[in-house]
Each structure stands twice: as C-alpha cells, then as structure tokens.
Write a structure and sequence with these properties.
The strands form ten sheets. The protein has a 22-stranded antiparallel beta barrel. Strands 1-4-5-2-3 form a five-stranded mixed beta sheet. The chain has a domain of 168 residues. By secondary structure, it is mainly β. The protein contains 15 helices and 49 strands.
Length: 985
C-alpha cells in the first residue's frame, strides 16, 4: 500500500499530508522531533517547502504494507510510473541482445523512458547497469536492497536545474535508513494459488546502535524468486490467434518452399502438433512462441551494507556502503536456423529424409521435392534440399551482477550556513553466459554434412580422392535435423553448441560540495540559497566474446545463430555548478529560482533554469506553478557503441510509401536484423516542463491536490528504420545490393535486384535497356517492385531485403506529454482507530510523438499500451494494533495493436467478430484488488497481502504474441504474501 504526500515537507510532518497514513498515534512524537533535512527537488537544507512541489512519498510503513518484495514491484504501484512503455521489469527479460537484461528492472516516470528518469540514493547518483536496455542505459533498481530503504521520494517534473542530466521526467530518490536503534529480522513468503510454483521469499536483518562514538546501521538482505512461464496459465498457454504462427517449427523441420515442386512449404509428417493452414493454403508444422515464453525470469539477490555517522568538532562524517549480487536466468524462443550466410532455408543432404522416415513416407516426400546441388563448408558439392526450422532448445542466458556503492561525506555548519562535501564511487559489473540453445553456424552446417571433427574444427576435403580428414581429432558422424529423439543424433548437435559470454562494467566517480543558508532579509522575509559544484566521471565497458560479435572482416556474420550483442566502450568527464534561491516575497507568495550549468568533455555544455511560484491565499490552500528545462546527455552506450547486432522495427502503418514498397500496402511491422552504430555527434535530448496545481487541506484529516503537468521533449535519440527506408526511396547512397559496404550506411537488398531487375524491365543477357537498377540515382523503386513481381520472384509483392542493414543512432524526433495528477484522502477518527479513504490517479491528456520516418505527429493516448487513465482507490483502517486496507488499481482501456498485424491475423479477427466497423478493437480496462491486513504485537508484526484478490485475468490483446500486454498488465493471477518482523529489545 502506498503513501502519497501533497508536497515536499519535513520528515516530522509527513504523516499530516500522507494519503495512506497508518501510524496516527505516532504523529505527535514525530512533530516533536523536527530536524533540518533536505527534500527531493531542492538543495536548500531546512527551508519549509511544504506544498511548493508535487512530491510523492512512500515511507517505511507503506513499503511494508504494499506487499512488494522488490523495489520494482513497489514502484509499479504508483501512477506516475504506470502507462506507456517506459518502466520495465523482468517480464520483458530475454536471451537476446534486444531484450531487457535478465533480472534487471527500471522505473520510468510519465512513460518517457528509464533514461529520462534520474535515480538517486540519498540524493546522489548510482552507476547505471553495464548492460543497456537496447541502447538506453538505466539504473537497475533490483540491485537496491529493499530492506535498507527508509522511504522513497518521487518528484515527477523536470529537475535538471537542481540535479543535472537525466532528470527530464523527474527524480526518484531512495532514502536509506539512518540512525537506526535496535535490531529486527524480517521475512516474507509469497506464491500464487495456482498449481505451478511461482514462490518467492525474502529474509533481511537490520541492526543499529552506537559504535566507536558514532551510530552504525548494518543490514543484510536475501531475495529468491522462481520463474513464471506462459505454460503455467490456461489463458497464456495457447496463442490467442491461430494465425500467430511462425513458419519455423522446432523438433521437426518443414521442407522449404524453394525445394518444393509447387513452391509451397511441405509440412513435416512427424509434426508434434496439429498442422496449420497458411495464407498460401499450405499445411505445415508451425511454432508458437507461447510454448517457450517466460513471463518472469528467476531471480536471486543478496545484499549487505552499513551506514555510519560520527560527529566530531561540529562536523558530521557520514558513510554509506552496500554491495549486492544478483543472479537471473532468461529464456527466449529457440533460434532460427539459416544458411551460413544468414539467408533462409539451410541445406541438408537428401539422405536425411530416408534417415528419419519410413521408405514409403520418404519416397512420397522426395517425389514432391527438387533435389539440387549445394556446396558444403569443407568444399564438397552434395545433392540435397532446403528446410525451415529452429533449434529445439530455447535460447537461455545466465546473468550475474555485482553492484557496489560507497558514499562518504563531511557536513557541518559555518556560521549560519550549512555545508556538505562528499565523494561517490558506484560500480556495476555484470557477466553473462549463454548456457543453452546457442549454436555455431559453421559447426552446425559442418556436422549436418558429416564434416565436423571431434575437436570442433571443420574437416579438410581432398577433391582428388573425394575424402575428408581431420588434422586433429576424429571425424564425427552426420547430424540429421529431421531425426528427433535419438540420443546419438542429439549428441552430434551438442558438438555445435557455443556459450558466448558478455562482460560489462559501469562506474561512476563523483565529488561534490554544496552550501546553503540565509543570504538576506527583505521585508521581514529571509531569502535562502544553495550553491554547489560537482565533478563526475563515468565509464562503461560492454565487451562480448568474439563469437557474439558482427565483424566487418567476416561479412557481418555473428559466429552463432540468433544471438548477438553490442560492443561498447566509452567514458566521459562532466562538471557542473548550480545555484538555487528560495524567496518568500510576502506571507502568501514564495518564489523558487534555480539554474545549473553543466559541461561535458564530449558533446559540450548546457544551462538549465527553473522558476517556481507558490501562492497561499488561505492557510489551507496552496497554489503552485513551475517552469523548467532539463536535458538528457547521450548515454555512454549511445555515444560509444562500436557495432551492435540487433533488430530494428520498421512500421508500415506509419508511412504509406514504405508500406507500398515493403509491406504489400499493409500496415504491419517487421523487425529485420540490423547493425547499429553509435554516434559521437549526438546532441543531448532537451525538455521543457510546466506544472500548475493546488493543494487544499481544509482540516488535518482531509487533503486534496490537483496538478497539471506537461513536457516538451525534443531531439530524442534512437534509430529509425522506417525513416531510413523512406529516405532510401530518393537517396541512392542508402541502397545497396548485398551487404552494406564497410564505412557505409543504409539498406541491404537481395543481389538479384542489381543483376536482373531495372525500373523498365527484367534484364537478360540478350536484352538491352536504359533502365536503372536499385543502386543507381534516379531509379524508380515502385517500377522496380512492379518488375520484380512481374518476373515471379519471391512470394510477396515487396522489395526483397537482404540482411544486416546498417543504421546509426541519431536525434530522431520529438514528443509532447501532458496530463493531470489527482490525490485525495480523508480520514475519520474513532475511539478505536482511524478510517481513511484515498484516491490517487493520473489522467494523460496527450502524448504526441512524431511518426517514424515522418514529420507527421501521432497521438498515442488511447492507443496500444498508452491508457488514458490510471488510478488507485483505497479504504483503510488503522487501530491501536490492527490495521487493514483494500486497494483497487485501475487501468483504462486502450486500442489493441491491430494495425500492425499481418493480413492473415486480420482475416482471423474478422472471422471471430472481434473488430468494430473501423477495423479496430480495444483492450479492456483492468481493475485488480489488493487486500492487506496486519497486526502489531509488542515486539513483532505480522502482515498478510493478497494481490489480485478476485483473480482477474489480464485483458486479451491480439496485437501481442503473448495474448496480453505484459507492460500494463500481468498474468500471475491471484497471489499472496505473508511477512513478519521481529524487533529485538
């Protein structure tokens, strides 16, 4: 259960403005213990900024009663991090380079992305994960020990004027426990009520007391969670659309359509599932990703640390230190099997058919097939055919991350001024190994033709004697991809397995100094100020093993199938200086002014101001407004990536010209393999934010706040495959037949487009033409497509893309986001306790973003994954010892991702009657209920939480291959958590 404050206030009066307060009997004690503190959003210590900023605070009691077992679960419960595609957790993890790193999670404010949200611990920065999510660096919040957190402060508005880079959408500040006295042990266990085991447990210990004249707090934490698979629930076990199949089955390959007489795929007679009828009328063995989809990865984290404070000669020395170790495993669908050059339809000898099937079945298959010559790895020419398949084993990676953070500071008072200086060292080191499902393309094709040696080398072929030999080791047998369940055959495949690795390290070194105090008195009101400087160095290294890299000298081919990674190395020095002023002009009007200058040794400098005004027409009413600019420096991965093997999505629904050339006029998306390059000339992303709001507290028991906010976010950094395809229509330098040459960028097309197709016809040796091929200036791509179709090439009326298109990160576009936050709570006091009702919600008014490859703007609110309204409703009771609450979390409906589906999917949806008159449908709204109750004994607390009390299934989303939206919903179903705390006296 969450606690929401209407404003930034001193810790002593947090309970007064807390929407979910539960410890009412302690309010008087807290009020008596007023101390000067610094709140998120200001560097001025001790100034009463109550109501000047829309700050959300989640305190220790709210954390305990939330039922969250990790920081990522906790942050998913506040409206400011919900909606859009910014926040992610381990539900998005996978075993490919484009996936979220396994076991890691990030919180994003306002849907603007994790790299636009600044993550702080005790007001200072944390090293980003060394493994980026795509190219966005982020702080892995799963590495922050939950047991050490006293409270979390969330300021969802631009804050670069105070904190510098990355605070585009705001700041999330995790405040550690300090000056803790006593000891406690906490434990929890949670699971679903399903027959599968999604169990999770957490144990932590905290001790605090006086040591060597100072106060020491020590903590240790361990968390373990089982994986959760799509096969564990009836509503995710099977695909929501039969037409969501892949042509590439596992276990039992199909005969590739190029090797069939009639040009249609031939289904494997030994298919382990029912045949699927394709849009071409074929009966094939198909694959559905639900079979291997992991909805939440297994996760194990251990952490320990200490916080020490010591006073001497009016100076306070503070040091906080923690280390954490995270282990996780992620699974993705089995890798496709392609030819050595990465084109579809690998070759195998014709004897594979007779080795896998009875003579009658084999003869029938051969009768319908072309048997053609092909060249092997060793240089033989054999006779065989092509097939369609993927490996049987899902791609699996294990990741282990060690994180460390050390901050040591000195603080004190110099006259009427408070000063503080500190150093920060934060580091994150990750190691990844592909433990299953990854195979070497050269070894695989060699063992499939009997050319692999026992030492892993490829045999030498002597043409004159027609013999194979191994310089070392022995020649292995021949692997048969059509033979399943044979131990000897499986052992041969195992010889082609590889275990690529990836090592990453991210480090932040920082030193800062600041001073705050009163500078002048004007009209009986004191002007306060803060000044500070900071120097920071950041380094990142992301180094994959050679067998996971695409290399120019190797035709961009990664040694292994369906697996790649980025090679990224970069460092940066930055220094900044800020000034902040708080000026109570009158008893009713307060002014906050701030500005920060930052200078980077790579992209340059930037200055960001902030102006905030507060007006109090009545002691119970606060009107507030703020304007500021913010920026996000290009991440080190974006600036320093050398070459990243990934996929890039082009969206034919966003650009009709691209749709006509590459998508047969339809509006679906496609994600071909690309090579992504960094860009040293990237400019920082810039943002302008505005907030307007009011807070009204007619009594100590009733509080209401309403805030309008907006962000204009420009020069977004990304790759834009749609834009490159669109630009290539008129720019011949971006069009390449075959591989993109080294040093060039652009789109790779099948070579036949240059050798046989021009825009006025199909060329043969005996014909002459003045037409232009696709690489030449002035070529008409529409006419080239018409000639391609007329010549009968391919199965689709689209220009044939090859592989490994080369695209560069750039400042690609803009987005404008605006909305309203509402918070209300009302308490009724009884002799036995307090009854509280609260509402917390966010309404997105607009989320405009330029279309990919176009200057046109699209409105995202109400579209796929962008709900318009998000809210929580809570009713709670707090007695002397017993407390309970029930919370309803609501996410409004939004459009399904229909326009990006293939034609065969649309046909099925129409047959099911799922589309409205406009050919669209909505994902239903979703409301889940969370129940919590607890009891405080003299030295112990018991707490019980049930999530999704009524076992609401996630709404069906046909636009997702999972069948639901795993960003805004989850498929775990009803689940519980039982926790206890024992306090030693």
């Amino acid at each position: 259960m969450k606690k929401f404050t209407l404003s930034a206030v001193a810790l002593s009066v947090l309970a007064i403005f807390n929407a979910n307060a539960q410890e009412g009997s302690n309010q008087s004690n807290e009020t008596a213990a007023i101390e000067k503190i610094t709140v998120t959003g200001s560097q001025i210590k001790g100034v009463d900024l109550e109501g000047t900023q829309p700050l959300v605070v989640i305190d220790a009691q709210a954390i305990r009663s939330s039922g969250a077992s990790s920081i990522s679960e906790l942050m998913a419960q506040i409206s400011q991090t919900r909606g859009g595609v910014g926040s992610f957790n381990t539900s998005e993890s996978g075993a490919t380079s484009t996936s979220t790193p396994a076991g890691q999670a990030a919180a994003s404010l306002r849907g603007l992305g994790p790299s636009s949200t600044l993550t702080l611990i005790n007001g200072r920065r944390v090293a980003a994960s060394s493994f980026a999510a795509g190219t966005q660096n982020f702080v892995d919040i799963n590495s922050i020990p939950l047991s050490a957190i006293e409270r979390v402060e969330v300021l969802a508005t631009g804050a670069s004027a105070i904190y510098g880079a990355d605070a585009v959408a705001g700041v999330i500040n995790y405040i550690l426990k300090t000056d803790y006295q006593g000891a406690e042990i906490n434990g929890s266990y949670g699971n679903s009520f399903a027959s599968s085991d999604e169990g999770r447990y957490n144990l932590n210990f905290i001790w605090g007391g006086e040591v060597a004249g100072g106060n020491l707090t020590v903590f240790a934490d361990h968390f373990d969670r089982n994986a959760f698979h799509a096969q564990d629930r009836s509503y995710t076990r099977d695909p929501v659309l039969v037409s969501n199949y892949s042509y590439l089955p596992k276990h039992t390959p199909n005969i590739y359509y190029y090797s069939a007489y009639d040009g249609n795929e031939i289904g494997n007679p030994d298919c382990k599932t029912d045949f699927v009828t394709t849009e071409y009328g074929e009966e094939i063995c198909a694959y559905y990703s639900n079979e291997d989809d992991q909805l939440r990865s297994a996760l194990e984290t251990s952490s320990a640390g200490f916080i020490y404070s010591y006073d001497f000669n009016d100076v306070t020395w503070n040091t906080d230190f923690f280390i954490s170790n995270t282990k996780s495993r992620a699974v993705s669908s089995p890798a496709p099997i392609d030819q050595v050059d990465d084109t579809e339809g690998p070759w195998v000898g014709e004897e594979a058919i007779y080795g896998a099937f009875s003579p009658e079945v084999a003869d029938a298959l051969i009768y319908d097939m072309w048997i053609d010559p092909f060249d092997t790895q060793a240089g033989q020419q054999l006779w065989g055919f092509r097939y369609d398949a993927r490996f049987a084993s899902p791609r699996t990676v294990d990741i282990e991350t060690d994180a460390m953070r050390l901050v040591s500071s000195l603080s004190g008072e110099w006259g009427e001024w408070f000063w503080e200086t500190g150093i920060t060292l934060s580091k994150s080191e990750s190691e990844q190994v592909a433990s299953a499902g990854i195979y070497n393309r050269y070894k695989y094709h060699a063992v499939s033709t009997g050319e692999l040696c026992s030492n892993g080398s490829i045999a030498d072929y002597d043409y004159d004697s027609d013999t194979l030999s191994c310089g070392a080791g022995e020649l292995l047998g021949t692997y048969n991809p059509f033979l399943s369940g044979d131990a000897t055959n499986d052992a041969l495949l195992a010889m082609a397995q590889e275990m690529p690795t990836r090592d990453g390290e991210s480090t932040v070194y920082g030193i800062d100094a600041k001073i705050s105090g009163d500078i002048a008195e004007v009209n009986d009101h004191m002007i306060s100020a803060a000044f500070g400087v900071e120097f920071r160095r950041e380094e990142i290294n992301d180094i994959p093993s050679m067998n996971a890299r695409a290399r120019f000298e190797n035709d961009y081919l990664v040694d292994v199938f369906g697996f790649g990674s980025s090679l990224s190395q970069a460092d940066r020095n930055q220094w900044g200086a800020f000034a902040e002023f708080y000026w109570p002009i009158t008893d009713q009007i307060e002014l906050q002014l701030a500005g920060r200058y930052d200078d980077y040794n790579d992209f340059g400098d930037t200055f960001n101001p902030k102006v905030g005004v507060t007006y109090r027409p009545h002691e119970s009413v606060i009107l507030r407004a703020a304007w500021s600019t913010s920026f996000r420096a290009p991440s080190l991965t974006q600036a320093g990536v050398k070459l990243r093997t990934t996929t890039a999505t082009y969206d034919c629904s966003a650009n009709q010209a691209v749709a006509d050339l590459y998508c047969e006029g339809d509006g679906f998306t496609s994600s071909p393999n690309v090579l992504e390059l960094g860009n040293a000339n990237l400019k920082p992303e810039e943002s302008e934010s505005v907030s307007l709001g009011f807070a009204w507290s007619p009594s100590s028991d009733t509080h209401l706040s309403l805030d309008y906010w907006s962000f204009k976010h420009e020069q977004l950094i990304d790759t834009d495959m749609t834009a490159v395809l669109n630009d290539a229509i008129n720019d011949a330098s971006l069009r390449h037949c075959g591989l993109v040459p080294e040093g060039s960028m652009g789109i790779s097309y099948e070579e036949v487009l240059c050798s046989g197709i021009v825009d006025d016809g199909v060329l043969y040796e005996f014909l002459d033409s003045n037409g232009l091929n696709i690489e030449q200036d002035g070529a008409n791509l529409t006419q080239i497509l018409d000639q391609w179709v007329a010549a009968g090439f391919g199965r689709e009326d689209a220009l044939p893309l090859y592989r490994d298109h080369v695209i560069q990160l750039d400042n690609t576009g803009t987005q404008e986001v605006s909305g309203f936050d509402l918070a209300f709570d009302h308490s009724v006091n009884f002799a036995e306790g307090r009854l509280t009702f609260s509402i917390d919600g966010t309404h997105y008014a607009s989320f405009e973003r330029n279309l990919a490859g176009s200057s046109d703007v699209e409105e995202l609110i109400g579209t796929w994954r962008y709900p318009e309204n998000i809210a929580s409703f809570r009713l709670g009771w707090v007695g002397e010892q017993f407390y309970t609450s029930i919370t309803a979390d609501y996410t409004s409906s939004y459009q399904d991702d229909i326009k990006r589906l293939r034609g065969r999917n649309i046909d099925e949806l129409e047959a099911l009657g799922e589309l409205d008159a406009n050919g669209e449908r909505d994902v239903d709204s979703w409301t889940t209920v969370r129940f919590n109750m607890g009891y405080d004994f003299d030295n112990m607390n018991l707490n019980f939480t049930v999530h999704n009390l009524f076992d609401e299934e996630p709404p069906v989303a046909y636009g997702s291959r999972r069948g639901f939206d795993s960003i805004n919903h989850n498929a775990l179903g009803v689940n519980y958590q039982l926790s206890f705390s024992y306090f030693f006296k």
